[in-house]
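Per your request, structure below.
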């Protein structure tokens, strides 16, 4: 059967690994092997979810696909019942910054959507998200996605032993601010492993917080949320969905990152069969 995370029935995650006195966990070789598998499964499910995106598709259909693929692969969909989240994936459309709940909303041509897939397999979580365009996007949306992707790539280049976690936010904010965009200050990246969210908690804006230093065996996410206008958010009555205060659009990308002895490995990296999107292909990238 499917191995369940500690919150699957209660809805309440463990506080292990998040306290001020907790250190950033260094994963063992066997932990890392299992996290490679979790990361690969999360990537394959995210790719499949992305292939479903087209006008007229309901976000609930994306949720159904993710849930079914998790069951087929002996995984638990990590968002489900995490602090009582009601679905198996986050679908954040247009002005939704993060944590959009799948429902009967139909995607329209021109929409942009972030799909955030986290799965729990053999005791470890794998977490990734990506943008997808519904039909054809306008130039403003293309530019937002390209800037978000580029800022995320700049931050990922910084990930190696000895690098400071608090520098990631500055790399992201400097890049996007120069181009007229803002970065969310309200949602963080995080360590990940046996628990969904643990130290380090990483800020996506310039800061001098003492967040620690990257060491081989650290595993964490990098997941900037970049906004066209203000990055201030409104929380919907569902207590999850966060939208931009001005209704302008937001975009996000996320990988699970392992620090190795000589750099970083992206445990949720693309596979040869993953779709290549316009912002990744040098011949179709938008100039920003």
């Amino acid at each position: 059967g499917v191995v369940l995370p500690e919150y699957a029935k209660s809805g309440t995650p463990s506080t292990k690994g998040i306290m001020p006195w907790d250190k950033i966990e260094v994963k063992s070789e066997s932990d890392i092997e299992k996290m490679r598998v979790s990361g690969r499964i999360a990537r394959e499910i995210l790719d499949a979810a992305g292939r479903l995106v087209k006008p007229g598709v309901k976000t609930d259909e994306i949720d159904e696909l993710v849930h079914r693929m998790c069951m087929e692969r002996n995984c638990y969909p990590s968002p489900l019942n995490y602090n009582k989240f009601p679905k198996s994936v986050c679908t954040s459309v247009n002005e939704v910054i993060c944590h959009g709940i799948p429902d009967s909303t139909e995607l329209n041509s021109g929409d942009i959507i972030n799909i955030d897939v986290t799965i729990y397999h053999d005791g470890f979580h794998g977490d990734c998200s990506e943008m997808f365009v519904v039909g054809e996007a306008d130039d403003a949306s293309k530019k937002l996605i390209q800037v978000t992707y580029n800022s995320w790539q700049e931050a990922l280049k910084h990930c190696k032993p000895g690098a400071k976690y608090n520098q990631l936010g500055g790399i992201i904010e400097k890049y996007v601010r120069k181009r007229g965009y803002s970065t969310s200050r309200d949602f963080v990246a995080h360590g990940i492993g046996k628990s969904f969210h643990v130290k380090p908690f990483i800020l996506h804006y310039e800061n001098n917080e003492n967040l620690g230093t990257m060491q081989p065996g650290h595993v964490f996410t990098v997941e900037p949320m970049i906004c066209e206008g203000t990055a201030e958010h409104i929380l919907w009555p569902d207590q999850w969905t966060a939208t931009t205060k001005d209704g302008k659009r937001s975009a996000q990308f996320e990988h699970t990152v392992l620090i190795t002895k000589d750099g970083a490995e992206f445990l949720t990296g693309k596979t040869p069969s993953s779709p290549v999107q316009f912002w990744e292909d040098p011949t179709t990238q938008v100039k920003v």
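Residues 43 and 271 are 8 Å apart (CA to CA).

Regards,
D.
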